[in-house]
From TrEMBL:
The chain crosses the membrane at residues 60-93, 219-240, 246-268. Signal peptide: none annotated. It comes from Microbacterium flavum. This is Type II secretion system F family protein. Pfam families: T2SSF.
Amino acid sequence: MTVIWGAVLAAGLLLVASPWLWPPRAEAARPTRDGRIARLLQEAGFAHAPVSRPAAVSALAAAVCAAAAWLLTGLPAVALVAAVAGAVAPFSWLRARGRRLRRSRRALWSDVCDLLVSAVRAGMSLPDAVCALAVSGPPALRPAFERFAQDMSASGHFDSSVLRLKATLADPVADRIVETLRMARQVGGTELTAVLRALSSSVRADAALRAEVEARQSWVRGAAVVGVVAPWIVLALLSLRPEGARAYATGAGVVVVLVGAVVSVFAYRLTIRLGRLPEPQRWFG
């Protein structure tokens, strides 16, 4: 009995002291569905588009693809697979566009850093140096800096304007540049040019290395696309024949179509994942 009372007392003391022994940890808030879509739109270059637009386009594409597959083959299973593919296609296009934008801009950020260093060394203030990129910056990035210049002239507040610029650019390297400028604007210091010069060298080396590796691995994505598309072209051609349509309309044919769709998606995702380089994360997004 004494042992039981001692164990109960020890448990009570442990529960009382638990808030100090194991303080609660703040869990990172998971992004909502609208937040993920908004981020996807930002990375694809459509930062000002409404969040509901991709869902509407997805529903329309699913209906069109399902109707086309039904009219072409007359098979419900094929129409279902076409509807799912049509629903996913707009989001896949946005992700692919975001990757292309990051790839095309990757070699431009070092030039942006060099132009900022030159402007700061020439005696320009940070807002003027960033606004000057609307004229002297790389052509692909000038529209974003033009919007920043208009926002800056309208509000006169550098911090909020540069945060909107960061949301418009939606790039990991741009996030680092913007946060460096914000810190230099808030706390001052004489190390801004050195930091930007070091960032420029790092970005230039990373861009050269990634370009070389991606050029050697470009065949992986091509092989994955061919491996996924080819069986479905054969299925569509077979479904055009009456005996093929009757075979795929049976229960076993439906199972073959659905299992083939699942295997195709899994094989494509696995091939892309094995041949893809890890993308830098937007830690300051």
